[in-house]
Write a structure and sequence with these properties.
Layout: E1 2-3, E2 18-19, E3 25-26, E4 37-38, H1 51-73, H2 93-98, H3 105-121, H4 131-159, H5 182-200, H6 205-211, H7 214-227, H8 231-239, H9 242-249, H10 258-283, H11 287-293, H12 298-301, H13 306-327, H14 332-352, H15 358-390
Antiparallel strand pairs: 1-4, 2-3
Helix pairs in contact: 3-4, 3-9, 3-10, 3-15, 4-5, 4-7, 6-9, 7-8, 8-10, 9-10, 10-13, 10-15, 13-14, 14-15
Length: 391
Protein backbone atom coordinates (compact mmCIF):
# COMPACT_ATOMS: atom_id res chain seq x y z
CA UNK A 1 0.00 0.00 0.00
CA UNK A 2 1.46 3.37 -1.04
CA UNK A 3 1.14 6.52 1.04
CA UNK A 4 2.26 9.66 -0.86
CA UNK A 5 2.80 12.83 1.21
CA UNK A 6 2.55 16.38 -0.17
CA UNK A 7 2.87 19.77 1.46
CA UNK A 8 -0.82 20.84 1.52
CA UNK A 9 -4.13 18.92 1.44
CA UNK A 10 -6.07 19.30 -1.84
CA UNK A 11 -9.35 17.73 -0.60
CA UNK A 12 -10.78 18.94 2.62
CA UNK A 13 -12.74 16.36 4.47
CA UNK A 14 -13.00 15.88 8.18
CA UNK A 15 -9.73 13.88 8.19
CA UNK A 16 -8.24 15.57 5.08
CA UNK A 17 -8.28 12.24 3.33
CA UNK A 18 -10.21 10.37 0.66
CA UNK A 19 -10.79 6.62 0.92
CA UNK A 20 -10.26 5.13 -2.54
CA UNK A 21 -10.43 1.38 -1.91
CA UNK A 22 -9.45 -1.19 0.74
CA UNK A 23 -8.32 1.39 3.37
CA UNK A 24 -5.88 3.17 1.03
CA UNK A 25 -5.51 6.85 1.98
CA UNK A 26 -3.96 9.42 -0.33
CA UNK A 27 -2.89 12.67 1.34
CA UNK A 28 -2.24 15.54 -1.05
CA UNK A 29 0.12 18.38 -0.33
CA UNK A 30 1.95 20.91 -2.54
CA UNK A 31 4.87 20.11 -4.85
CA UNK A 32 7.53 19.04 -2.30
CA UNK A 33 7.55 15.24 -2.44
CA UNK A 34 8.85 13.31 0.55
CA UNK A 35 10.02 9.72 0.57
CA UNK A 36 7.33 7.14 -0.03
CA UNK A 37 6.38 4.87 2.82
CA UNK A 38 5.43 1.33 1.90
CA UNK A 39 3.03 -0.41 4.21
CA UNK A 40 1.95 -4.03 4.22
CA UNK A 41 -1.44 -4.57 2.65
CA UNK A 42 -4.23 -5.13 5.13
CA UNK A 43 -6.27 -8.30 5.09
CA UNK A 44 -9.06 -8.09 2.49
CA UNK A 45 -12.44 -7.56 4.05
CA UNK A 46 -15.29 -9.69 2.77
CA UNK A 47 -17.52 -6.67 3.07
CA UNK A 48 -15.40 -4.60 0.67
CA UNK A 49 -17.15 -3.95 -2.68
CA UNK A 50 -15.20 -4.24 -5.92
CA UNK A 51 -16.10 -1.15 -8.01
CA UNK A 52 -16.22 -3.26 -11.19
CA UNK A 53 -18.54 -5.78 -9.59
CA UNK A 54 -20.72 -2.94 -8.33
CA UNK A 55 -20.88 -1.52 -11.84
CA UNK A 56 -21.96 -4.90 -13.20
CA UNK A 57 -24.68 -5.17 -10.58
CA UNK A 58 -25.97 -1.71 -11.39
CA UNK A 59 -26.03 -2.49 -15.11
CA UNK A 60 -27.90 -5.77 -14.60
CA UNK A 61 -30.35 -4.05 -12.31
CA UNK A 62 -31.03 -1.33 -14.87
CA UNK A 63 -31.41 -3.96 -17.62
CA UNK A 64 -33.97 -5.83 -15.55
CA UNK A 65 -35.77 -2.55 -14.96
CA UNK A 66 -35.84 -1.80 -18.68
CA UNK A 67 -37.19 -5.28 -19.51
CA UNK A 68 -39.86 -4.91 -16.85
CA UNK A 69 -40.94 -1.58 -18.32
CA UNK A 70 -41.13 -3.10 -21.82
CA UNK A 71 -43.17 -6.06 -20.57
CA UNK A 72 -45.50 -3.76 -18.71
CA UNK A 73 -46.02 -1.67 -21.84
CA UNK A 74 -47.25 -4.72 -23.81
CA UNK A 75 -50.66 -6.31 -23.18
CA UNK A 76 -50.64 -9.64 -21.30
CA UNK A 77 -52.09 -12.86 -22.71
CA UNK A 78 -55.85 -13.12 -22.63
CA UNK A 79 -57.96 -16.18 -23.31
CA UNK A 80 -59.84 -15.85 -26.63
CA UNK A 81 -63.35 -14.49 -26.20
CA UNK A 82 -64.44 -14.73 -29.82
CA UNK A 83 -63.98 -16.99 -32.81
CA UNK A 84 -63.44 -20.74 -32.89
CA UNK A 85 -60.98 -20.81 -29.98
CA UNK A 86 -63.52 -19.27 -27.61
CA UNK A 87 -65.64 -22.43 -27.84
CA UNK A 88 -62.81 -24.86 -27.17
CA UNK A 89 -61.86 -26.18 -23.70
CA UNK A 90 -59.12 -24.08 -22.13
CA UNK A 91 -56.76 -27.06 -22.02
CA UNK A 92 -56.96 -27.44 -25.81
CA UNK A 93 -56.64 -23.75 -26.72
CA UNK A 94 -52.80 -23.61 -26.56
CA UNK A 95 -52.57 -26.49 -29.04
CA UNK A 96 -55.11 -24.86 -31.32
CA UNK A 97 -52.98 -21.70 -31.15
CA UNK A 98 -49.89 -23.75 -32.03
CA UNK A 99 -51.71 -24.88 -35.19
CA UNK A 100 -52.82 -21.26 -35.84
CA UNK A 101 -56.48 -22.28 -36.10
CA UNK A 102 -57.32 -18.70 -35.18
CA UNK A 103 -55.26 -17.39 -38.13
CA UNK A 104 -56.26 -19.45 -41.18
CA UNK A 105 -54.59 -17.27 -43.82
CA UNK A 106 -51.51 -19.51 -43.79
CA UNK A 107 -53.69 -22.57 -44.40
CA UNK A 108 -55.24 -20.88 -47.42
CA UNK A 109 -51.82 -19.98 -48.79
CA UNK A 110 -50.70 -23.60 -48.42
CA UNK A 111 -53.92 -24.94 -49.96
CA UNK A 112 -54.16 -22.65 -53.00
CA UNK A 113 -51.21 -24.14 -54.97
CA UNK A 114 -52.87 -27.56 -54.51
CA UNK A 115 -56.10 -26.11 -55.91
CA UNK A 116 -54.26 -24.48 -58.83
CA UNK A 117 -52.48 -27.70 -59.85
CA UNK A 118 -55.64 -29.80 -59.56
CA UNK A 119 -57.62 -27.44 -61.80
CA UNK A 120 -54.71 -27.09 -64.22
CA UNK A 121 -54.27 -30.87 -64.45
CA UNK A 122 -57.97 -31.73 -64.78
CA UNK A 123 -58.26 -30.98 -68.56
CA UNK A 124 -55.20 -33.20 -69.19
CA UNK A 125 -56.96 -36.36 -67.99
CA UNK A 126 -58.63 -38.64 -70.50
CA UNK A 127 -61.50 -38.88 -70.31
CA UNK A 128 -61.64 -35.51 -68.59
CA UNK A 129 -62.14 -35.97 -64.88
CA UNK A 130 -65.65 -35.35 -63.51
CA UNK A 131 -66.37 -32.28 -61.36
CA UNK A 132 -67.24 -34.44 -58.34
CA UNK A 133 -63.83 -36.09 -58.49
CA UNK A 134 -62.18 -32.68 -58.66
CA UNK A 135 -64.17 -31.47 -55.66
CA UNK A 136 -63.31 -34.55 -53.57
CA UNK A 137 -59.62 -34.21 -54.47
CA UNK A 138 -59.65 -30.54 -53.53
CA UNK A 139 -61.36 -31.36 -50.21
CA UNK A 140 -58.60 -33.86 -49.36
CA UNK A 141 -55.99 -31.25 -50.22
CA UNK A 142 -57.65 -28.73 -47.93
CA UNK A 143 -57.68 -31.23 -45.06
CA UNK A 144 -54.01 -31.98 -45.64
CA UNK A 145 -53.15 -28.28 -45.81
CA UNK A 146 -54.93 -27.63 -42.53
CA UNK A 147 -53.06 -30.41 -40.74
CA UNK A 148 -49.63 -29.88 -42.29
CA UNK A 149 -49.75 -26.13 -41.82
CA UNK A 150 -50.38 -26.79 -38.12
CA UNK A 151 -47.45 -29.22 -38.00
CA UNK A 152 -45.21 -26.70 -39.72
CA UNK A 153 -46.18 -23.94 -37.29
CA UNK A 154 -45.51 -26.20 -34.30
CA UNK A 155 -42.08 -27.14 -35.68
CA UNK A 156 -41.38 -23.45 -36.31
CA UNK A 157 -42.32 -22.54 -32.72
CA UNK A 158 -40.10 -25.31 -31.35
CA UNK A 159 -37.12 -23.98 -33.28
CA UNK A 160 -37.93 -20.38 -32.31
CA UNK A 161 -38.82 -20.93 -28.65
CA UNK A 162 -35.85 -18.78 -27.57
CA UNK A 163 -36.42 -16.10 -30.24
CA UNK A 164 -40.19 -15.65 -30.01
CA UNK A 165 -40.11 -14.03 -26.52
CA UNK A 166 -37.94 -11.24 -28.00
CA UNK A 167 -40.48 -10.29 -30.70
CA UNK A 168 -43.60 -8.37 -29.69
CA UNK A 169 -45.89 -10.19 -32.14
CA UNK A 170 -44.74 -13.70 -31.17
CA UNK A 171 -43.99 -13.36 -27.45
CA UNK A 172 -47.40 -14.78 -26.45
CA UNK A 173 -47.25 -17.89 -28.59
CA UNK A 174 -47.97 -21.02 -26.50
CA UNK A 175 -44.39 -22.29 -26.21
CA UNK A 176 -42.91 -18.81 -25.78
CA UNK A 177 -45.22 -17.94 -22.90
CA UNK A 178 -44.85 -21.37 -21.27
CA UNK A 179 -48.38 -22.67 -21.90
CA UNK A 180 -47.03 -25.71 -23.77
CA UNK A 181 -43.81 -27.52 -22.86
CA UNK A 182 -41.35 -28.33 -25.65
CA UNK A 183 -41.80 -32.06 -25.06
CA UNK A 184 -45.59 -31.79 -25.34
CA UNK A 185 -45.23 -29.75 -28.52
CA UNK A 186 -42.94 -32.41 -29.97
CA UNK A 187 -45.53 -35.13 -29.25
CA UNK A 188 -48.23 -32.93 -30.77
CA UNK A 189 -46.09 -32.50 -33.89
CA UNK A 190 -45.78 -36.25 -34.24
CA UNK A 191 -49.55 -36.64 -33.99
CA UNK A 192 -50.10 -34.03 -36.70
CA UNK A 193 -47.57 -35.69 -39.01
CA UNK A 194 -49.29 -39.05 -38.58
CA UNK A 195 -52.64 -37.41 -39.40
CA UNK A 196 -51.07 -35.78 -42.46
CA UNK A 197 -49.74 -39.15 -43.59
CA UNK A 198 -53.23 -40.62 -43.21
CA UNK A 199 -54.57 -37.92 -45.56
CA UNK A 200 -51.74 -38.50 -48.04
CA UNK A 201 -52.53 -42.22 -48.19
CA UNK A 202 -56.01 -41.37 -49.53
CA UNK A 203 -54.41 -40.21 -52.80
CA UNK A 204 -52.94 -42.47 -55.51
CA UNK A 205 -49.75 -44.24 -54.42
CA UNK A 206 -47.46 -42.08 -56.55
CA UNK A 207 -48.51 -39.03 -54.47
CA UNK A 208 -46.73 -40.60 -51.52
CA UNK A 209 -43.37 -40.40 -53.29
CA UNK A 210 -44.01 -36.83 -54.38
CA UNK A 211 -45.26 -35.71 -50.97
CA UNK A 212 -42.73 -37.16 -48.51
CA UNK A 213 -39.73 -35.06 -49.70
CA UNK A 214 -41.60 -31.88 -48.72
CA UNK A 215 -41.18 -32.83 -45.04
CA UNK A 216 -37.49 -31.97 -45.26
CA UNK A 217 -38.41 -28.40 -46.22
CA UNK A 218 -41.06 -28.20 -43.48
CA UNK A 219 -38.49 -29.15 -40.82
CA UNK A 220 -35.59 -27.02 -42.06
CA UNK A 221 -37.38 -23.78 -43.00
CA UNK A 222 -37.15 -22.25 -39.49
CA UNK A 223 -33.35 -22.61 -39.64
CA UNK A 224 -33.12 -20.53 -42.80
CA UNK A 225 -33.84 -17.27 -40.98
CA UNK A 226 -30.67 -17.84 -38.92
CA UNK A 227 -28.28 -18.26 -41.84
CA UNK A 228 -29.67 -16.25 -44.78
CA UNK A 229 -31.56 -13.06 -45.51
CA UNK A 230 -33.80 -15.05 -47.87
CA UNK A 231 -35.74 -17.49 -45.66
CA UNK A 232 -38.84 -16.49 -47.64
CA UNK A 233 -37.40 -18.38 -50.61
CA UNK A 234 -37.18 -21.55 -48.52
CA UNK A 235 -40.74 -20.91 -47.34
CA UNK A 236 -41.75 -20.58 -50.99
CA UNK A 237 -40.24 -23.96 -51.82
CA UNK A 238 -42.23 -25.42 -48.91
CA UNK A 239 -45.61 -23.74 -49.35
CA UNK A 240 -45.65 -24.18 -53.13
CA UNK A 241 -45.18 -27.95 -53.07
CA UNK A 242 -48.88 -28.44 -53.71
CA UNK A 243 -48.39 -26.97 -57.20
CA UNK A 244 -46.85 -30.33 -58.10
CA UNK A 245 -49.23 -32.59 -56.17
CA UNK A 246 -52.42 -31.97 -58.19
CA UNK A 247 -51.07 -33.81 -61.23
CA UNK A 248 -50.29 -37.19 -59.59
CA UNK A 249 -53.46 -36.80 -57.48
CA UNK A 250 -55.48 -37.05 -60.71
CA UNK A 251 -53.40 -39.96 -62.00
CA UNK A 252 -51.07 -37.99 -64.30
CA UNK A 253 -47.50 -39.29 -64.30
CA UNK A 254 -45.20 -36.30 -64.49
CA UNK A 255 -42.20 -38.39 -65.53
CA UNK A 256 -43.91 -39.71 -68.67
CA UNK A 257 -45.92 -36.62 -69.61
CA UNK A 258 -43.67 -33.78 -70.80
CA UNK A 259 -46.38 -31.13 -71.05
CA UNK A 260 -47.59 -31.93 -67.54
CA UNK A 261 -44.04 -31.78 -66.22
CA UNK A 262 -43.46 -28.38 -67.83
CA UNK A 263 -46.77 -27.09 -66.51
CA UNK A 264 -46.07 -28.36 -62.99
CA UNK A 265 -42.56 -26.88 -62.96
CA UNK A 266 -43.78 -23.49 -64.22
CA UNK A 267 -46.69 -23.41 -61.77
CA UNK A 268 -44.40 -24.40 -58.89
CA UNK A 269 -41.92 -21.63 -59.72
CA UNK A 270 -44.79 -19.14 -60.08
CA UNK A 271 -46.11 -20.05 -56.63
CA UNK A 272 -42.61 -19.74 -55.14
CA UNK A 273 -42.40 -16.17 -56.47
CA UNK A 274 -45.86 -15.45 -55.06
CA UNK A 275 -44.92 -16.83 -51.64
CA UNK A 276 -41.77 -14.71 -51.45
CA UNK A 277 -43.86 -11.69 -52.46
CA UNK A 278 -46.59 -11.98 -49.83
CA UNK A 279 -44.21 -13.13 -47.10
CA UNK A 280 -41.94 -10.17 -47.78
CA UNK A 281 -44.89 -7.94 -46.92
CA UNK A 282 -45.57 -10.10 -43.85
CA UNK A 283 -41.91 -9.79 -42.76
CA UNK A 284 -42.24 -6.00 -42.57
CA UNK A 285 -44.49 -6.49 -39.55
CA UNK A 286 -41.52 -7.70 -37.47
CA UNK A 287 -38.71 -5.73 -39.07
CA UNK A 288 -37.77 -3.77 -35.92
CA UNK A 289 -37.90 -6.76 -33.60
CA UNK A 290 -35.98 -8.91 -36.10
CA UNK A 291 -33.07 -6.48 -35.95
CA UNK A 292 -32.92 -6.75 -32.15
CA UNK A 293 -33.27 -10.53 -32.14
CA UNK A 294 -30.74 -11.08 -34.94
CA UNK A 295 -33.30 -12.70 -37.26
CA UNK A 296 -32.63 -12.40 -41.00
CA UNK A 297 -35.28 -11.69 -43.63
CA UNK A 298 -35.63 -10.39 -47.17
CA UNK A 299 -37.48 -7.36 -45.77
CA UNK A 300 -34.35 -6.35 -43.85
CA UNK A 301 -32.06 -7.04 -46.78
CA UNK A 302 -34.14 -4.92 -49.19
CA UNK A 303 -35.84 -2.53 -46.79
CA UNK A 304 -35.15 0.54 -48.93
CA UNK A 305 -36.25 -0.97 -52.25
CA UNK A 306 -38.97 -3.37 -51.15
CA UNK A 307 -41.61 -2.25 -53.64
CA UNK A 308 -39.20 -2.62 -56.54
CA UNK A 309 -38.46 -6.19 -55.43
CA UNK A 310 -42.19 -6.87 -55.00
CA UNK A 311 -42.86 -5.60 -58.51
CA UNK A 312 -40.17 -7.86 -59.94
CA UNK A 313 -41.60 -10.86 -58.10
CA UNK A 314 -45.10 -10.07 -59.40
CA UNK A 315 -43.85 -9.97 -62.98
CA UNK A 316 -42.09 -13.32 -62.51
CA UNK A 317 -45.16 -14.86 -60.92
CA UNK A 318 -47.58 -13.82 -63.64
CA UNK A 319 -45.12 -14.74 -66.41
CA UNK A 320 -44.55 -18.24 -65.04
CA UNK A 321 -48.29 -18.69 -64.47
CA UNK A 322 -48.81 -17.90 -68.14
CA UNK A 323 -46.08 -20.41 -69.06
CA UNK A 324 -47.88 -23.09 -67.05
CA UNK A 325 -51.11 -22.42 -68.92
CA UNK A 326 -49.34 -22.45 -72.28
CA UNK A 327 -47.77 -25.83 -71.46
CA UNK A 328 -51.21 -27.46 -71.14
CA UNK A 329 -52.76 -25.57 -74.06
CA UNK A 330 -55.02 -23.32 -71.97
CA UNK A 331 -57.27 -20.87 -73.79
CA UNK A 332 -58.02 -17.14 -73.44
CA UNK A 333 -60.32 -17.75 -70.46
CA UNK A 334 -57.31 -18.80 -68.41
CA UNK A 335 -55.03 -16.00 -69.58
CA UNK A 336 -57.63 -13.30 -69.00
CA UNK A 337 -59.15 -14.75 -65.85
CA UNK A 338 -56.09 -16.13 -64.03
CA UNK A 339 -53.13 -14.17 -65.40
CA UNK A 340 -55.07 -10.93 -65.85
CA UNK A 341 -56.61 -10.98 -62.38
CA UNK A 342 -53.25 -11.85 -60.80
CA UNK A 343 -51.55 -8.94 -62.54
CA UNK A 344 -54.23 -6.45 -61.49
CA UNK A 345 -54.56 -7.58 -57.86
CA UNK A 346 -50.80 -7.73 -57.31
CA UNK A 347 -50.33 -4.27 -58.84
CA UNK A 348 -53.00 -2.80 -56.56
CA UNK A 349 -51.55 -4.49 -53.47
CA UNK A 350 -48.00 -3.33 -54.16
CA UNK A 351 -49.21 0.20 -54.83
CA UNK A 352 -51.51 0.42 -51.81
CA UNK A 353 -49.68 -1.42 -49.02
CA UNK A 354 -48.05 0.78 -46.39
CA UNK A 355 -44.94 -1.14 -45.39
CA UNK A 356 -44.42 1.06 -42.33
CA UNK A 357 -47.77 0.05 -40.86
CA UNK A 358 -48.03 -3.32 -39.11
CA UNK A 359 -51.83 -3.28 -39.42
CA UNK A 360 -51.73 -2.50 -43.13
CA UNK A 361 -49.18 -5.23 -43.86
CA UNK A 362 -51.31 -7.74 -41.95
CA UNK A 363 -54.48 -6.66 -43.81
CA UNK A 364 -52.93 -7.17 -47.24
CA UNK A 365 -51.32 -10.45 -46.21
CA UNK A 366 -54.60 -11.71 -44.78
CA UNK A 367 -56.80 -10.81 -47.75
CA UNK A 368 -54.23 -11.02 -50.52
CA UNK A 369 -54.74 -14.75 -50.74
CA UNK A 370 -58.37 -14.14 -51.72
CA UNK A 371 -57.65 -11.28 -54.11
CA UNK A 372 -54.83 -12.91 -56.06
CA UNK A 373 -55.33 -16.58 -55.25
CA UNK A 374 -59.08 -16.34 -55.68
CA UNK A 375 -58.73 -14.69 -59.08
CA UNK A 376 -56.32 -17.38 -60.30
CA UNK A 377 -58.61 -20.12 -59.03
CA UNK A 378 -61.68 -18.60 -60.74
CA UNK A 379 -59.81 -18.37 -64.05
CA UNK A 380 -58.64 -21.98 -63.78
CA UNK A 381 -62.14 -23.15 -62.86
CA UNK A 382 -63.62 -21.34 -65.84
CA UNK A 383 -60.99 -22.87 -68.14
CA UNK A 384 -61.78 -26.34 -66.78
CA UNK A 385 -65.52 -25.73 -67.32
CA UNK A 386 -64.91 -24.66 -70.92
CA UNK A 387 -62.78 -27.74 -71.58
CA UNK A 388 -65.38 -29.98 -69.91
CA UNK A 389 -68.22 -28.61 -72.03
CA UNK A 390 -66.15 -28.99 -75.18
CA UNK A 391 -65.84 -32.76 -74.71
Amino acid sequence: MLLARFSRPCWKTRSHSVRVSHSVRVFCELPQIHPVEVAAPPARSHSAVNPFTLQQRLYRSSARTRNTVVEQSLPPYRHPTSGLLAYLPRSIVPYAELSRLDKPAGTYYLFLPCLFSTLLAAPLTYPIVAPLHVVSTVALFFSGALIMRGAGCTINDLWDRNLDPQVARTRLRPIARGAVAARSALIYTGAQLVAGLAILLQFPTQCLWYGIPSLLLVITYPLAKRVTHYPQFVLGLTFSWGAIMGFPALGIDLLSNASAMNAAASLYASCVAWTVLYDMIYAHMDIKDDVKAGIKSIALRHEKDTKAVLSGLAIVQVGLLGAAGAAVGAGPVFFIGSCGSAAVTLAVMIWKVNLKSVQDCWWWFRYGCWFTGGGIAVGLSAEYAVQLMAT
